[in-house]
Amino acid sequence: MDEFCGSEFWNNSVTWETDSPHFTRCFEQTVLVWIPCAFLWIFAALDVFYMRNSKDRNIPKGILNISKLILTALITILTICDLVYAITYKGETFPVNFYTPVIKIATFILAGVLVHFNRLYGMRVSGLLFIFWFLMTVFHIPRLLTEIRLNNNRVDSEDFDYQESFDSEHYNFVSFIIFFVLSCLILILNCFADSQPQDMKYPPSDKPCPEASASFLSRLFFHWFDSFVWLGYRRPLENKDLWSMNAEDTSAEVAPRFLKYWNQSVAKNSQVEPYNAVQSASFKKSSASINFTSGKAKKPSSILPALVKAFGATFLFGSVLKLVNDLLTFVSPQILKLLINFVSEDEPLWRGYLYAGLLFGVATTQTLFLAQYFHRMFLVGLRIRTALISAIFRKALVLSNVAKKETTVGEIVNLMAVDAQRFMDLVTYLNMIWSAPLQISLAIYFLWQILGPSVLAGLAVMIVLIPVNGVIANKAKNLQIKQMKNKDERVKMMNEILNGIKVLKLYAWEPSFEQQVLKIRDKEVHVLKQAAYLNAGTSFIWSCAPFMVALSTFATYVLVDDNNILDAKTAFTSLALFNILRFPLSMLPMLISNMVQTSVSVKRINKFMNGEELDPNNVQHDTSEKNPLLIENGTFSWGDENSTLKNINMQIESNKLVAIVGSVGSGKSSLISAFLGEMEKISGRVNTIGSIAYVPQQSWIQNATLKDNILFGRPFDKKRYEQIIEACALKPDLEILPGGDQTEIGEKGINLSGGQKQRVSLARAVYNNADIYFFDDPLSAVDSHVGKHIFDKVIGPEGILARKTRVLVTHGLTYLKKCDNIFVLKDGEISEQGTHQELLDKKGAFAEFLIQHLQEVNEDTENIDEIKAQLEGLVTDKELKAKFDRAISTTRSRSDSTSSGGSGKLSRQTSSNSETELRHRRASESPAKQADTSKQNGTQQQKLIESEKSETGSVKWEVYKHYLKSIGWWLAGATVVLNMIFQGFSIGSNIWLARWSNDDAAANDTGKRDMYLGGYAAFGLGQVFSQFVMSLIYSLGAIFAAQKLHTVLVKNLFRLPILFFDTTPLGRVLNRVSKDVDVLDNQLPHSSRMLVAMSFTVMATIAVISYSTPIFLVVIVPIAILYYFVQRFYVATSRQLKRLESVSRSPIYSHFGESISGTSTIRAYNVEPRFINESEEKVDFNQVCYFPSIIANRWLAVRLEIVGNLIILFAALFAVMGKNSLSPGLVGLSVSYALSVTQTLNWLVR
């Protein structure tokens, strides 16, 4: 290299062994130039990758990007001038004068090309270019100082003359100063983001996330979040303050990506078996059919490969950031070693300041890398949760009847609420799988460099703990499976209770059902207690591990050889490495616990996602068929061995009204389900042509306005809407309802009568304007005269649907005469079919059905006189006529005797007709009186379901007090005291180590050495036992609190009035008993324990540094004020975001439960995409609330860690300044504690 430059490449005497250090000219012109250039060339591919994947194009030309190009062009021209000058220079030149400018020219051209293409590909910010220009500027500072120094020397020389001395030295000075200024200007321009692209894949939103328009520097420090934090500090945040979701994080973008890979996985695992695969055949008596089944069952698919393929790239990039952070972690102990060496030996003062600066620089770089790592991991977790919730919802809409029997709504809600969340929690720690072993390996390697083979003693301790860990993990997995099973059982029970709460309260069954729920909860708590003992044991083992490793290593080191002296450099560099080791060792049990929980969740989600789906081929849509509805040789079942329908052959002509009749349980509703594809088709063929509308027997009503229930996603047509309201006899109902058609209907139509619900369901079908209509006995829920009105105006030959194909299941005998064709079902088979007259003439199953029905029917529900009049005109056979007359007279005599026998029937009659009377009474009121009433009612009655309110302001002391009281004051107090004792032992052990390392006598006196060793062991044992007792006491206290709070919740729920359940969505209550109870059981105990532990650790650190260097107390006041304000800003914002997120979670579950109960209707109307879209919108809104809380977390982490880095800086600076008065042991103690504070503050945030 000396020949390459024409001067020496490295000179230790001018760079290191001096009081005024500087690099050689050769080093400045080669290494310091080539490193930034190499960086750009190596990572340019990454920028190209981002450009190719960019969804936007064409950023308009503006001052910023044109200025970047002009300055890049100028700096390139300047470098070309340098090259030309070197070529034309008459004096002596060297290869460095040619090669370095050529490398710079090529690099600057590449930078210019990247600027240009970033603009074309819509990249508003380039992190690569920012880092390149930052490195280029920083790496040229040493040369800037050299050039200024040399120029000053030239000017100061006596024979200097400006006119004569424009030599190469002077040219280089001027050229370099211009170069450096241009470099600084380009760096400043790269601190800003470009304007919005013109061509964007996603339309710009009303409130875009500021991150999109933030510069690289702003993104690095999360500066773009400042305004939001300030807003959250000034006033409680509301939904309107939140930004829109980034388009790439929305369900519309995330879900299809996951589903693409999931469907590929399913298709791969369900490929057709090879021709020689063993097959078995089974004969079904019920259907008289032979089923061939493959000898090899379909292999179940797992969600994991699909998740990896969909979100692996972002995760991988995050892993690279984590790797850099992990490697940087081991730089600090090496600098600490140099710093202790500096204090103990006579070295130039600038080195001490350099070490302090390096400690701060390394720690800050770690902070930025770690913040970006967590940001990406949280984003991946967010996307996984979104994808899983969407996939679970889609799956629930297509589950077959067999699969539905295996899962309940409660279980599926748990999959969305708890299991999907588990992934989110795990993703942030998942990299510890490789990171923990890497950190442990590197720590042992560096410890080997210091302590030699003595490290093997510590390694042996870790190896012994591995099988112990395996046993614990296995036990934890079994407990987690039990826990989830109990949780499912409890949520399922609560779901059933909430669905039937009216019945429960009418029968006064609350105490017995409350006991059932609490019984299941007791089982849960029993498992939680076992887990608490296990966790306390784990905590004992892993808090014991770092101390045992340190003790065994130090003991072996000093005992194995008398020449091994434990001085400050050895002790505290080792201690810093042991502190690093403590983190992965303590993280492993948490990681294992999280992985165990997630593996259970994976199995549960896999089982659900592999559930059998409805076969889309059950119904074909062959348009070449003559008739719109057709079943040929159809045999159907509900997923069990027995066939519900057999030998079904039916064709229904276009625009005809067809009735299906039969006794109860004959399979009428099943026949309609077969047409809709809801049943399992064993044999035969089903074909439908055209769109379908369906009115189920049990009407399905959404929690929306009455108008929205009727429109059902269709555009509003006022004329048609009013015509349908009139035809479906809903006009009088609209007059009764407080808000008319804008009245909000509660969950499951809770504020409508049975008849009203059925008429709304009917109006929905009619408004849908389909080609085919299926009516599953809709007239049975309404009064007979209303039924007649609906039949005449809607279903019958003169009704709105006269030109549609209609299939009517009915028991109303008066309507049959007006039907074009009648199918009679008996024991799941069509016994006969024909017109009303033809069937009467046959005197077969239809006649039997009529007689049986006439004998069973009430005179109130059927117009007996009208039926009699109809039959007299149609029945010619005397014998049949006599049978009908006998049946009619039997019905009348039974009806008369019931009326005279008591008031039971009369009250029933009053009850059934009350709705009609109320309607007539309301209709007869004067319009003025009605208007007055509606004014009094106001808008409150129109809105039945109140939106969930979230608290504002700080969490009241009463809440904390209530939780601590639930834990128990003694247990809570004991936890704090034990934490203080633990920190006391911890500080004591390190001060003891400092004294030992400073005591020269201990090197020669074995008695003194053994005393120090014994004392160190005693302090360590004190730490371990206080940690174990604290962990056990707090875990049990938290379980008691969770049990008490759950009991209070359940007791209060059962004692709430019916009105509460009418006006509160079921999902909101389920959210309380599922997700919120899970937080009480698992998350809150862990978070609060960590909070207390980390708070005491920070206090202990400050105490130790202040003890070592009392001057530190001067700095701690401004640092504490800074910390306080950052914390205050964060807490105000984060707390409100958590509340908004919790409130936005309930609608997801409410909508989900509602959709599951109406799957057959949703499928019949073919509106699955709309419901999926609605669900995804609710998930997106939940993520809109959650995303800022992730950013808030990182915003705080960066600021708190910088506060921690300032503590490191000042601890090191004061150690350098007090070099002459401090012992190396105290410096080691102070700085090693400071180094661990950043990690502690990081945990405190989390």
From TrEMBL:
ABC transporter domain: residues covered: 629-852
Any single GO CC term annotated in Swiss-Prot or TrEMBL for this entry: vacuolar membrane
UniProt-listed Enzyme Commission number(s): 7.6.2.3
Leading EC class: translocase
Compositionally biased spans, kind Low complexity: 891-908
Family named by the database record: Belongs to the ABC transporter superfamily. ABCC family. Conjugate transporter (TC 3.A.1.208) subfamily.
Name of the protein: ABC-type glutathione-S-conjugate transporter
Organism per entry: Polypedilum vanderplanki (Sleeping chironomid midge)
